[in-house]
């Protein structure tokens, strides 16, 4: 089989191509950004748009859409764009290859729902709204950014609260980050001057493979290795003695080792510099309460404080973290590790 991968993210595309070339029934796998003829199968990133899928399918290749676990793409939508299935990049390597095999044999692969609370799925628009909420934007500002009416944004937020089981914006941001629904957009990663031993801890096989391929040969990488689970990461850390961990999810951080997060597209987030020591233990308690979606009266009762004192702590937290509201404070605190258990 000859396979064409049309992927908008180079790291993910290279990781997928590497996995596909490991199986004997695939003769050739090519990564491209535009349709090409002469292929039996084609896998098209849904982020490139359904018209791209239509153009690729027109070449005669049996085509499937590539999605992430939070992309809500039905088989009916895929069929309308000329595709014969939907394949999630986040599948374990064995399941992903099985889905491609199903496509090759004339089947129509469709990913199982994967999400928070019983198969709930989030649309790209909902994820973008969550990202902007985490950046501290109001409904009106989000509407202006996304060309939506503030009322439409509010409607989406109510749906997001329901899906996440959150009571307010701060609670929604915290839940979304814990579940990996949103990816941050920070400054581009600046490589260190001295070579480091790097551990890539990521449950997504395609992304982990792509990141490891990208790291090989980099002058700032002395050695690198990958791990899928926290248990694997701990075992690999004993052998590699890493000086840096690139984590695909927050729960794969290793105590005592500097950690940077991987974005959904496999790129590395720049570390946020902040004086985390300036946040007092009591303020950290208030941050945990923010993340749980608690109101000022509830926080006051839980911590034995007056509501006015809670407001003073909140103002101090906003100033120290350089944010303007609770949702942004939760996002920044999580980035800085202040909400780690």
UniProtKB/TrEMBL annotation:
Extract one GO BP annotation from the record.
regulation of DNA-templated transcription
Q: Please state every residue range assigned to the domain named Response regulatory.
A: 2-104
Instruction: Report which superkingdom the organism of origin falls in.
Output: Bacteria
InterPro entries, sorted? CheY-like_superfamily, Sig_transdc_resp-reg_C-effctor, Sig_transdc_resp-reg_receiver, Tscrpt_reg_LuxR_C, WH-like_DNA-bd_sf
The protein's GO terms of the molecular function aspect are: DNA binding
| Pfam families hit by this protein | GerE
Gene3D superfamilies, from UniProt? Answer: 3.40.50.2300, Winged helix-like DNA-binding domain superfamily/Winged helix DNA-binding domain
Every copy of the HTH luxR-type domain together lies at 115-180, 272-337
**Per the record's keyword annotation, is Transcription regulation included, yes or no?**
yes
Keyword field: DNA-binding, Transcription, Transcription regulation
Protein name per UniProt: LuxR C-terminal-related transcriptional regulator
Q: Which organism is it from?
A: Solirubrobacter phytolaccae
């Amino acid at each position: 089989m000859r396979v064409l991968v049309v992927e908008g993210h180079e790291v993910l595309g290279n990781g997928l191509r590497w996995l596909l070339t490991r199986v004997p029934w695939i003769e050739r796998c090519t990564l491209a950004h535009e349709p090409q003829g002469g292929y039996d199968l084609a896998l098209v990133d849904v982020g490139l748009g359904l018209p791209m899928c239509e153009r690729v399918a027109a070449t005669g290749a049996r085509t499937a859409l590539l999605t992430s676990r939070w992309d809500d793409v039905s088989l009916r939508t895929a069929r309308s764009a000329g595709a014969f299935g939907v394949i999630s990049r986040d599948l374990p390597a064995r399941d992903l290859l099985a889905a491609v095999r199903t496509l090759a044999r004339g089947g129509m692969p469709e990913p199982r729902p994967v999400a928070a609370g019983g198969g709930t799925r989030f649309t790209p628009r909902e994820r973008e709204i969550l990202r902007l909420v985490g950046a501290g934007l109001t409904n009106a500002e989000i509407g202006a950014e996304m060309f939506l009416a503030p009322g439409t944004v509010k409607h989406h937020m109510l749906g997001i609260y329901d899906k996440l089981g959150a009571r307010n914006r701060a609670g929604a941001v915290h839940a979304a980050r814990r579940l990996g629904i949103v990816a941050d957009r920070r400054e581009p990663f600046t490589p260190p001057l001295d070579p480091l031993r790097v551990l890539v801890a990521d449950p997504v096989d395609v992304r982990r493979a792509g990141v490891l391929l990208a790291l090989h040969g980099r002058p700032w990488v002395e050695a690198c290795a990958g791990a899928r689970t926290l248990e694997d990461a701990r075992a690999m850390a004993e052998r590699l003695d890493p000086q840096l961990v690139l984590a695909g999810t927050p729960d794969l951080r290793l105590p005592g080792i500097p950690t940077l997060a991987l974005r959904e597209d496999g790129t590395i987030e720049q570390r946020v510099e902040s004086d985390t020591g300036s946040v007092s233990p009591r303020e950290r308690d208030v941050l945990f309460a923010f993340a749980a979606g608690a109101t000022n009266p509830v926080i006051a009762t839980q911590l034995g404080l007056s509501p006015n004192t809670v407001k003073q702590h909140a103002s101090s937290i906003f100033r120290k973290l350089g944010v303007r509201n609770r949702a942004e404070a939760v996002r920044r605190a999580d980035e800085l590790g202040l909400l780690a258990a």
